Structures are given as structure tokens and as C-alpha cells.
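step 3/5: co-fold with CO-5-methoxybenzimidazolylcobamide
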Amino acid sequence: MDILNKISEHLQLGDDEKVRIFTKEAIKAKISPKEILNNGLIFGMDIIGKKYKAHEIFLPDVLLAAKAMYAGMDLLRPMFIKGGIPTIGKVVIGTVQGDLHDIGKNLVGIMLKGAGFEVIDLGNDVSPSEFIEIAKKEDASVIGMSALLTTTMPFMKIVIDLLKEERLIGKIKTIIGGAPVTEEFAREIGADAFGYDSINAIEKVKGLTGMT
Ligand code: B1M
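step 4/5: write C-alpha cells
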């Protein structure tokens, strides 16, 4: 079994220690961080999602897998964030109200920092007013929202409606993402951009801030 398979397998078993060991091994073998992330960690987490949906595994298994995912991500983080890069814009990000899924949002945050943006991460379960207040206070040019539940996606629209009410549309741009979120939904609610994964999100934020 190759190293990336081992990472995926042990992530699915929720064995954070083994994920840490094999991620270190993959880094040492000069496999790119992007490949370790996509073909090891995210690949394993996708299988967890499918098994959970099929009721083959249960919530505690998903929690353990998430912990193992973070064990690997922690080792990759410094490789995505290179120090000393001047910031090229300020982005406030968070997972919307009622939603505790933060792995994808954290990946987007790591990549944004790596691309040179200053990131203010509000964490998960972020209320619409908190997004607006902090973005105003920090003079951020972009608000990034993540949602993993169909039931929490409507909070993204509330944030955009509040921006409209406060006449901040255009001054503060919005990007949304997360597994159930689509380009069409983004258009429907008036978001400025949709990111289908963390790499794509960075391209879109660069576009929103005039960096491309
Ligand atoms: Co939950 N969960 N979960 N879960 N969970 C899903 C989302 C689900 C699809 C599983 C399933 O049924 N197959 C399902 C949602 C169904 C739906 O709404 N239609 C679900 C459910 C039902 C639930 C609970 C309700 C279960 C329960 O309690 N009965 C509960 C809800 C809790 C809450 O939030 N209030 C719950 C809880 C949990 C855990 C806490 C156990 C854990 C989260 C741990 C954590 O995040 N710290 C968890 C997990 C891990 C998952 C799955 C298995 C994996 C999510 C993940 O981290 N993926 C997930 C199944 C799935 O998505 N296939 C599932 C890896 C991550 C890298 O991908 O987040 O999609 P993702 O991010 C991607 C892109 O989407 C994009 O870039 C990332 C990198 O490529 N992206 C952005 C994300 N945010 C972006 C923002 C952007 C741009 C791009 O711009 C700002």
C-alpha cells in the first residue's frame, strides 16, 4: 500500500497517530503537500462521508476521522503558509450559524494565508451580524462563508441581505463554498463568487480583490 493510501486508510480508522506518522513520511518522501491533502486526507474524508450517508458508520467514527484529518493538516499547514509574505488583502471567514463543520473552511483559510491574504477566522457557528460587524471593524474587503448543511445555507443569504441593507455591497465582496453549495445558489442569493474547493476559492478571492 502506498503512503497516500495509508493516510486515507488510517484517517478512515480514526487513527490520528498513524495519520501523523504517514503524513510525516509522505512529506519526507517529497510528495507535494497538495497531493498529500487531496489524494490522502480529503480522499479518506470523502469515503467517510459516503459511509456515513449509507449508515455503515456513525457519528463518533466521523468525529475520530475529523480528528485524524486535523493531525495531517497541522503538519501540512506550514508548507502552505510561507512566512514573510506581505498581505494583499483582508478576508473575514467563518462557517455560518448553526454549522459546526470547519475542516473545509480551515483549509480555505490556510490557503488564503499562503497566498498572502490576512485572514480573520471567526470559527464556526458565526451569526450573520458577527460577519458584518467584524468585516466593518477590520475594514475587510471580502467575507468568506462556508456551509456544509443544507439547513444552514440560508444564513449565507441573510449575510448578503444585511450587506445590502447597510449599503456595503461592492465595498465588501462575498464568496461562499462548502459541499452542498453551488454556483447557481451563489448567483441566486447574490454572492460575488463561489469556490468549489480551496484552490479555486483562492483564485476567486484574488479576482474579487483585483489581484488577477
Ligand atoms: Co457532518 N454532515 N454532520 N460532521 N459531515 C456532512 C456535511 C453530511 C453531508 C454527511 C452525510 O450525510 N453524508 C451531512 C449533511 C447533510 C445535509 O445537510 N444535506 C452531515 C450531517 C447530517 C451532520 C450532523 C447533522 C449529524 C448529526 O448530528 N446527526 C451534524 C451537524 C452538526 C452541526 O454542524 N450543527 C454533523 C456533525 C459532523 C462532525 C462534527 C462529526 C464532523 C465535523 C467536524 C469538523 O468539521 N470539525 C462532520 C463531518 C466530518 C462530515 C463529513 C463526513 C465531512 C466534511 C468534511 O470535513 N469534508 C460530511 C460529508 C461530506 O461532506 N462528504 C458531513 C472535508 C472538507 C475538506 O471538505 O468541507 O466540503 P468540505 O470543504 C471543501 C469544499 O467544500 C470547499 O473547499 C474545501 C476543500 O476542498 N469549501 C469552500 C468549503 N468551504 C468553503 C468556503 C469557500 C470556498 C470553498 O469560500 C469561503
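step 5/5: annotate
The CA atoms of residues 83 and 165 lie 38 Å apart.
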